[in-house]
Fold this sequence. Notes:
Layout: E1 27-30, H1 32-41, E2 46-52, H2 58-69, E3 74-77, H3 79-86, E4 94-98, H4 108-112, E5 120-125, H5 130-142, E6 147-151, H6 160-166, E7 175-178, H7 181-190, E8 194-198, E9 215-220, H8 228-232, E10 236-238, H9 251-275
Parallel strand pairs: 2-3, 5-6, 5-9, 6-7, 8-9, 8-10
Antiparallel strand pairs: 1-4, 2-4
Helix pairs in contact: 5-6, 5-9
Amino acid sequence: MSPSGRPKGAARNARPDAALSAHPGQQVLAGFHAVAGRLKHAPGSIAALCVDRERHDGRMRQLLARAEDAGVRIVAADARRLQGLAGVVPHQGVVALCATPTPASVDFDDLLHRIEPTTLFLLLDGVTDPRNLGACLRTADAAGATAVIVPRDRSATMSPLVAKAAAGAADSTPLVAVTNLARAMDDLKQAGVWIAGAAGESERSVYELDLTGPLAWVLGAEGEGMRRLTRERCDFLAHVPMHGQVESLNVSVATGVCLFETQRQRAAKAAAAATAPRASPATPGAVS
Length: 288
């Protein structure tokens, strides 16, 4: 407890919420995970952190302490004002007004010039539900994906709902929108990336593929799957084996299976290479 009677970590520099509103062009982030992710990766982009003046629990105190250490302006607000800022997104008493777009945003051409043996992309075709997109971002971040690529049309875009579902991953994993997904796939292949598509009707499973090189996984919306042009541009297709009664998985769950199997294979290959006996150096002048 501080001398003033305020719990340590409470908003010492909190201001009243008079005339508080999001300005045009500002991004609104709601919920602890989304706000904490922005505080970690780009605190300077936060114009104001709006918090519930009635909430003083440990989680709130920890977030406020991090915000104060970063020099973020903190504004005390009532629940009604917070709900007005967050809209339909559950805010948990925390809303950040950000002056710049998500720092993780990069250009598609930048991705093409950064292809490495460990490159791993996630392409989403027709995922229009913002919560599914956010969940896929979260999964991609956990699996170490290089970026998530979506078409500009027929896809959810970055929004408070997406950021909330991404639980902070929106600030660490690039979300790249392209005009034509099929053309982007062609560009990726020319850059040396193999493309695998998740398709329930495929005869091969994800566990039968060699996923150890530069790779892009393509997944469509649950039920609809990939569009024809997208499917035709895949180098190979594979299904996730189902052993119960359900016929399909949520796209974010299927994403997790595909991406983590990729990383499992890569880790196994790296471990095998590290333990393999080295060849004896050749004797000078010897003929092999």
